[in-house]
Amino acid sequence: MDNQDVNEQSMDEQYKNNQKMDNDMNNQTLKGEWNQLKGSVKQKWADLTDDDLTHIEGDRDKLVGRIQERYGHSKEDAERDVAEWRNQNKY
Questions:
Q1: Which end of the chain has fewer CB atoms within 10 angstroms, the N or the C?
Q2: Contact 56, 63 (CB under 8 A)
Q3: Residues 6+ apart with CB under 8 A from 91
Q4: pLDDT (tens digit, 0 to 9) for every residue of the chain, 91 residues total?
Q5: Does the pTM exceed 0.85?
Q6: CB neighbours of 20 closer than 8 A, spacing ≥ 6?
Q7: Alpha helices in the chain (DSSP H)
Q8: Helix or strand or coil: residue 85?
Q9: Smallest Cα–Cα separation from 89: which of 47, 21, 49, 33?
Q10: How far apart are the two ends of the chain, measured CA to CA in Å?
Q11: Triad 51, 47, 59: Cα angle to 5°
Q12: Which class for 19: exposed (0-12), middle (13-18), buried (19 or more C-beta within 10 A)?
């Protein structure tokens, strides 16, 4: 491996680590503000029940999973919907 390969690998690892840190911080924010966010979630995804919201507990992955179940979306579509909702609402 030459220096360029090492640098590219290192940059890939840094990117992945940064993505993980961003996801962890975003998940913590979502969990910390979950009670305030429930209303916005219900407006966006009215088919989610109160039991669904209790189960989700602010966990992004659980939210994606419940949206998949209730709306029949693919995982990618549900993840995109959640990402758009979070960007629109600045969460």
A1: N
A2: yes
A3: 26, 29, 30, 33, 37, 85
A4: 555 554 555 656 654 544 444 454 455 557 778 888 899 999 999 999 999 999 999 899 999 999 999 999 999 999 999 999 989 987 7
A5: no
A6: none
A7: 3-32, 34-44, 50-56, 60-71, 75-89
A8: helix
A9: 33
A10: 41
A11: 50
A12: exposed
List the structure tokens of 66. 């419940």
Unique residue bearing structure tokens 């429930």: 38
Angle between helices 60-71 and 3-32 (to 10 degrees): 80
| 61, amino acid identity | D
Query: What does the chain come to in residues?
Result: 91
Report CA-CA distances (Å) from 29 to 36, 59, 66, 77.
11, 10, 19, 22
Residue type, 60: R
Residue bearing tokens 């680590």: 17
Task: Scan for tokens 């975003």, then name that residue.
Answer: 26
